[in-house]
Specification:
2 copies of one chain form a homodimer.
Chain A lengths: L1 E9 L3 H19 L2 E6 L3 H8 L5 H9 L2 E6 L15 H11 L2 E9 L12 H4 L3 E7 L9 E4 L4 E9 H17 L3 E6 L5 H13 L7 E6 H10 L6 E4 L1 H14 L7 E6 L3 E5 L16 H13 L4 H16 L5 H4 L7 H11 L1
Parallel strand pairs in A: 1-2, 1-3, 3-12, 5-10, 8-9, 8-10
Antiparallel strand pairs in A: 4-5, 4-11, 6-7, 11-12
The structure holds 3-isopropylmalic acid (2 copies).
EC number (chains A, B): 1.1.1.85
InterPro entries (chains A, B): IsoCit/isopropylmalate_DH_CS (IPR019818), IsoPropMal-DH-like_dom (IPR024084), Isopropylmalate_DH (IPR004429)
Protein name (chains A, B): 3-isopropylmalate dehydrogenase
């Protein structure tokens, strides 16, 4: 099979971790007789520096023509704490999500037995946790009308959803629940927000099409609590853009394996795969960042974008093996030897 | 001193826990030679049943004429999962907040040494946690324009903030930080939302008036993570209404003492004190609910509304003592004897 993949390394540790994922993908491709055509493109602060735009048209062209996009991370401290900055790396991210139509962000949270003691939660709370969030990614308050009034003294943002947008996301949620443990939680704030009431009534109307799925409706504040108390009580959760932003990040730290969590953003035509960690500028260029979240994002890509289960499993297996054998970067090494980013990549390639 | 207090018991376990707080307040008043005039009023589902309105005008009159309001809990399952319900208990809550001008919700999270093993977090993560959230409570997306368009197919909500609203809340935050550990965290989503950029620039401009306070700015998603990872790294946090709703609830479960957490809602003229737990309808009428959060809310009332530190401390001390001696309701009893709600109240009164 010929796989056309756009490669967006981005900022900070992005390029380093992406390098390892590319090596691993190439090794898998070789083993299973595929051919990968990688096309690199600029994004984030790197793109602002080069062409004054965080998501240049050329990058968009490359992504549109690819079968899938593998993404590193974007963001640079230079743009933080400056509310007046005109161009920001984050704008590139939002523009990319919208222009590529990546409406469903898939964020799993699961545990690795060998890392469970890294969790801030007690073992009995976190054990067995295996949940996945589906966050709506191209609408809501992220993309609504916003601005200032009264000479800048008043600011507003608008959260808008259409029934079609909710349906499209919820459909993926129901399907995912069917393929997993048949439990779906719709997270909203229907006791206050009109957009949430649209979410809830739309999902309620879809229940009859998936009679096997047990659906629950929970307020976002209640979910923020239960995620810390009983994360293993959840299976699939669906939610709107902003709630998803907050809750998926909250969920990501409970497993203790934040540095390992992959994600996918699905669109009608193309899809994008990226580690959930950020650009971690303090570590950039030091060859110390953990590449496993990016490598596992590549595994998600094989599975989700290309339907190549075996290849995905091969990657997951070699990652498990590296963890068991302690071939890990300093964030996981504890008192044992810490390997470099590139050394972990090399080891994975060798053992694929 | 003569204390005029409006008493809003509300729904579910509200009346039972309020009863205990009233007993404790009366005992403290007797000891310190104060006179409390209690005036009860209807609210929540109870008020809907009686007069068709969750926050009747008569109740508002009573609250307005009081020096402080002591509140139980509202909410009834009969109104949940019914997006079409015309009148809901929650509307009463929102109307009350707005009509009484309760713009600052104060939500402390602290630990009780004797309860630390109830926390879902590992002891080393939670130890020493003593933070307080100031949540803006009368503006933002809770009170902005909302509605439907396209024959109900599109729903929208608006988040609006004025610079004055932000200043008013932030001022309380800076003052509270000065009285505590001089650390203030402004929680926003300034990389996306215009209203958040107004928050950030307003707080930044106030920094010079409080040179001793160390101010940090963090995105809401990052705070949702760090609250689970390192809750003891925070002191005072300020945030807008919806973020505050989610994060204060998340923060409330980390200590393991959720059933004990009090809160205050401060206005220009009056203030309201309530436990953070809900109406817990399953337990209503069974005399099993934990009254300590309401009792500690009464302590906050003595301190904050009336400036009576010693009286507040007397309540906190007797609560500590009851915990040490295991005079606790079933939620905290474990394998030991569980006391009834009213028995705990009686014990507190006796030992004041
Ligand atoms: C960088 C930011 C705009 C972005 C978001 O809020 O969506 C990030 O937090 C994320 O979740 O991918
Ligand atoms: C009941 C609901 C409207 C309310 C809110 O969201 O403010 C509650 O969750 C709270 O935090 O007091």
């Amino acid at each position: 099979m010929e796989l056309n993949i756009a490669l967006l390394a981005g900022d900070g540790i992005g390029p380093e971790v992406i390098d390892q994922a590319v090596k691993v993908c190439d090794a898998v491709a070789k083993k299973y007789d595929h051919k990968i055509n990688w096309t690199s493109a600029l994004t984030g602060a790197a793109a602002i520096d080069a062409v004054g735009e965080p998501y240049p048209n050329e990058t968009h062209e490359i992504c549109t023509n690819a079968d899938a996009v593998l993404f590193g991370a974007i963001g640079h401290p230079r743009f933080d704490n400056d509310p007046s900055a005109k161009v920001r790396p984050e704008q590139g991210l939002l523009k990319m999500r919208q222009k590529l139509g990546l409406f469903a962000n898939v964020r799993p949270t699961f545990t690795f037995p060998s890392l469970i003691d890294k969790s801030p939660l007690k073992q009995e709370r976190i054990e067995g946790t295996d949940l996945v969030f589906l966050r709506e990614l191209t609408s809501g308050i992220y993309f609504g009308k916003r601005g200032r009034e009264d000479n800048g003294e008043t600011a507003y943002d608008t959260c808008t959803y259409t029934r079609e947008e909710v349906k499209r996301l919820a459909k993926k949620g129901f399907e995912m629940a069917m393929a997993r443990n048949k439990k779906l939680c719709c997270v909203d704030k229907a006791n206050v927000l009109e957009s949430s009431r649209l979410w809830r009534e739309t999902v309620q109307a879809m229940e009859k099409d998936y009679p096997e799925v047990e659906v629950s409706y929970e307020f976002v504040d209640a979910v923020a609590m239960r995620l810390v108390q009983w994360p293993n009580s959840y299976d699939v959760l669906i939610t709107e853009n902003l709630f998803g932003d907050i809750l998926t990040d909250e969920a990501s730290v409970i497993s203790g394996s934040m540095g390992l969590m992959p994600s996918a953003s699905l669109g009608e035509k193309t899809s994008l795969f990226e580690p959930i960690h950020g650009s971690y500028p303090q570590a950039a260029g030091k060859d110390i960042a953990n590449p496993l979240a990016t490598v596992l994002s590549a595994a998600m890509m094989f599975e989700t974008a290309f339907g190549l289960q075996e290849e995905a499993q091969a990657i997951k297996n070699v990652v498990d093996k590296s963890l068991e054998e302690g071939i890990v970067t300093e964030d996981l090494a504890g008192d044992a030897k810490a390997y470099k980013t590139s050394e972990v990549g090399d080891w994975l390639v060798k053992h694929i």
